């Protein structure tokens, strides 16, 4: 029973650690790899030290491990929030690597080799530990909520203490601490989120409206004064004037210059501002969103931004690649790709020439695909995305927006507007601080960059390295 509980504790600790590291620090492929390495390091250290550590040092190790396990789901975020103004985020990450790898995962791994000294059936014992891990994996898949998952995560700590230490006083103390953590978790998480938003994102008076852990990410809706903000895994997705201007250039401009009637697809829901801008231009809008929790919270909490009624736009919960693969050819007048930067392998797939060719095939002859470069046109990320678009589309127009602090590309086989019309529309509105480039200029600027490719993870890692903790958090 002890080995099964330890196996489940190892796997749940690994899962919670990966989620917390990814949602606290700017989530990129590099951070994901570091988090996985952290969680794999612990059991290796535990196996190595099992026969070299006495009962008393093991008890101290267990005390530290259990304390960290109880605090991890809210403590890491609070700690980073407290230390971020001092420029110590990277050091917190290094501390997490050590604590997570050695204390959290390592403690639960020591029981297998220590018990194997008194029993010859090591394969059977390992199978029992692995079985506990598989049960924990099933709970991750079936758990109805993040708090329910944490209940088992903390309960396993109590069970391991009871079976491994067999001291009633210790078990009662750990059990009461776990019950207290579970009962007060909403308040603790809210407190930690406020500290994180103040320290990392500079909010003066943050108020947490709603938080949800979906299978994909952590979603936070925050108020600060009259302004409302949307964060996904600690990254700002809506709330500033720059992000409002981003939606205006990305979705509003091509919708106003293109056909006044027709069908449009907006990939990514967020605050639903992009979808609303396209709908107000007269198009029928389908919003494609991978995470239904983002769509639900975005629609609920940003009504004053999008002013949409239920049914005004069609929402499809699906991966964008699969959606366009099943869509008919030549079906859409406008496709708005409001997707994150290619700092993960999964999101990089939405910036490749192959994906852009798929999108191009679903456009009508004068249809428009609008995409953000997530960067300047001359930047490593922006240049790579522009090169992907240049390889897939016959005509490009770029907008370098000072207000949105990044560049955009309108692409198609034969665009229904030219650079002069785009410049005229931008000059007549609040986005006048923008430079518009025609097809020849865009291709010339993109020529020195290699396109984003699904076969080159190294390029994704290099782009992700530029936004390690402490660097810019622009998406």
Q: In terms of topology, how is this protein built?
A:
Blueprint: H1 2-24, H2 29-49, H3 55-83, H4 89-109, H5 111-116, H6 122-142, H7 146-165, H8 168-183, H9 185-201, E1 206-213, E2 218-224, E3 227-232, E4 235-238, H10 241-257, E5 263-267, H11 273-280, E6 284-289, H12 292-301, H13 303-306, E7 314-317, H14 320-326, E8 332-337, H15 345-348, H16 353-361, E9 363-372, H17 380-392, E10 395-401, E11 406-412, H18 419-427, E12 434-437, H19 439-446, H20 457-465
Helix pairs in contact: 1-2, 1-3, 1-4, 1-6, 1-7, 2-4, 3-4, 3-7, 3-9, 7-8, 10-11, 10-18, 16-17, 17-19
Give an overview of the whole structure:
Strands 7-6-5-8-9-11-10-12 form an eight-stranded mixed β-sheet, with helices on both faces. Strands 1-2-3-4 form a four-stranded antiparallel β-sheet. It has helices at residues 2-24, 29-49, 55-83, 89-109, 111-116, 122-142, 146-165, 168-183, 185-201, 241-257, 273-280, 292-301, 303-306, 320-326, 345-348, 353-361, 380-392, 419-427, 439-446, 457-465; strands at 206-213, 218-224, 227-232, 235-238, 263-267, 284-289, 314-317, 332-337, 363-372, 395-401, 406-412, 434-437. The chain contains 20 helices and twelve strands. It has 475 residues and is of the alpha/beta class. Helix content is 57%, strand content 16%. Mean pLDDT is 84; it is low at 458-475. It starts with a helix and ends in a 10-residue tail after the last helix. It has two domains: 2-191; 241-465, Vaccinia Virus protein VP39 (Rossmann fold, 3-Layer(aba) Sandwich), CATH 3.40.50. α1 crosses α6.
